[in-house]
Design brief:
The chain is an all-alpha fold. The chain contains 5 helices and no strands.
């Protein structure tokens, strides 16, 4: 076995190691996304099919899932914009020190 590995150039071993890391990373990203995504946002509405595709087809299966199998989240059409949570400095000053009406309170 050692004789076989010594015949392979070092750059080929490094490239194979990097490809293995990339493959595992893409698979993990796809599986985590599939786990977190609601069933309504997955094509075919069946997560088990996509788990099998990602795991059995290796990198290509994960790429297919990430590109084609995810549906975008449905936005509420009539949803009101969120209320602003910022507080104006005038309101803070009035709350802390009282309203500015030109009279002095003591």
């Amino acid at each position: 076995m050692d004789a076989i590995l010594s015949a392979v150039p070092l750059w080929v071993l490094v490239a194979l190691g990097l490809l293995a890391v990339v493959e595992i990373t893409v698979d993990v990203i796809a599986l985590v996304d599939l786990y977190r995504r609601p069933i309504e946002q997955v094509v075919f509405a069946n997560k088990w099919i996509w788990v099998a595709i990602v795991l059995l087809v290796n990198t290509i299966g994960a790429i297919i899932y990430l590109v084609a199998a995810r549906k975008p989240a449905v936005a509420a059409v009539e949803a009101a914009p969120p209320a602003s949570t910022s507080v104006r400095t005038d309101n803070v000053a009035d709350t802390l020190y009282g309203p500015r009406d030109g009279t002095h309170r003591r």
